[in-house]
Amino acid sequence: MRQGDLYARLSASQRAGIVAASASVPMSLVPLLRPRSATDQGLITGLSSAMNYALTTVAHDVVLGTSRGALRLVGARIDVGSTARTTLAVDLVALAASSAVHVALPRRDGEAAARAIVRTTAGRIRAAAVAGILPSVLDALPGRDRAIGAALRTVPVTVVAGAGISAAMQLVRVRRLRAAGVDPVNGHGAPVAKSLGIGAVTAMGAVGLAAAERRIAHAADAAIRRVTGRAGHGSIPSHLASVAVIGAGLYGVGARYYRRVEAAASAVDGTLAAPPDSPHVSGGPGSVVAWGPLTRQPRRHLTSVTTAGRIESVMGRAAREPIRVYVGLTSGPTVADRIQLALTELERTGALDRSVLVLVSPTGTGYVNYAASSAWEYLTGGDCASLALQYSLRPSILSLDRVDDGREQNGAMWTAVAEVLARRAPADRPRVVLFGESLGAHTSQDAFLHTGTRGLQAHFVERALWLGTPHASGWAHEVRDPARTDVRPGEVLQVACADDLDHLDPTAAAAARYLLLAHDDDGVSLFSPDLLVRSPTWLSDSRPPAVPAQAGWSTPITFLQTAIDTKNAVDATPGEFVATGHDYRADIARAVRFAFGLPCTDEQLADVESALRREELDRAATWS
Fold first, then answer.
1. pLDDT category, 377, cuts 50, 70, 90?
2. Predicted model pTM
């Protein structure tokens, strides 16, 4: 088929969609938080192009349909000869109206979701109108059957025009940044040619899925027509049926994938088949937690406990054997069963007689940061105990459906511990602190939803350290409200790295009790569905240094970029501690010392950090 014939078969909205999809490509190639592979960049480019095509086509169809319906109501006549000019006029009016709405509703911090959705919808209509103007102008020009006119009215010309407009806008932005003395270039880019190739395949896959949906809807239409005797092509019921069929298929595929992931994440290291020989950890001699059912991460945590001998060699003073209590998701069938096992373990090990009790909420797989656990064991001289309960078997990104389970289990466990402590005299209670990283931070914070810091204190939790808190944490958003009466000023401290702790005002340092540490380029802390409808503060003019100056907000591109950057947030090399993305190993020793109030000299802290690096290398060699 000739390009001109293909172009002629497309509707005005489909042509606008092609322009929008092409225009999204240069924007999708702009780096955001983390380096990307060509595959990741291709996924972003392909999905954003497909989504922009779909959203623009739908928005343009709605605008044209509404406008033509209104014209017919007032008796206006629309013939084939005037269709192109009518479409152009509608696009210009839609551009003006949507731009007015966009200007009237500027972004505000803390704005209601409804306001953001209205503004973003207006922005989408504006983008659809702009994308529709180019093909509408081509269609409205005289001489559409002449050689030059026919040459311009082709799909490739439309694609190149859309991409060219976007690239030109991006070039203007880069030049403006350079004129302001800002370097808009960093090293996060992926190979463009390979990325575009993968993006094209991804986009075709998305378009293929849309075509499948239309075919299923057409079949549903035929079934509806046979049953009711009424035509309904394109009707809402047929599309709902189509989406239900595709959704059921995807659900089945997802459930199978989840089972495979859980099996892989639960597989036990060959070196950890035998239970530990220490009575101070769960699974050891006398423990009520059976070793056999425990999955990989609980076993790794329990066998990597810091020995008193290692503590003495690093800290230069006498030490005790630390206690680690861990109850796996597979250790008991119900929350009540697992809590009872934990309480029995606390009593058996004498955990509540130690000077510090650390309540831990693991990540999705049950992982507890090895460096953090060892850090508080070193800094307490082993006079500590930790308690963790597993709530999922999948990686955190696949365990979002288990957040409520983790939050409720943590709340019930810590309430049970608080009841035991309440029966003790204050002098006989350990100092209770709390630790959570990533999804563990979310599930531990939201156990205290709507109670501020008073909820923590009611459970005897006097200090806490949270690393890489996900954006979805409700508690973290609540305690930032200065009007709350259940949070004392300065109690909750948020920093971007451990270096910030070294420069705190003494008054602020003394007031801080609950520390949230999240890197400026940690996608886990920045990713949110809100990115679909509004620009985040970290992309404002006062953005953190880790966010490239040339990056701007665009839906759905920013959402997809941040999702991929979240996936790539951890790129850890054993023994090489860095403070970037979702990797907090370089921050941990200093953060634990500050957050838990565990004094030590700078020399001792340096020795602890060296020991943590050595231990990580040893673990990597043993478990590989």
1. very high
2. 0.82
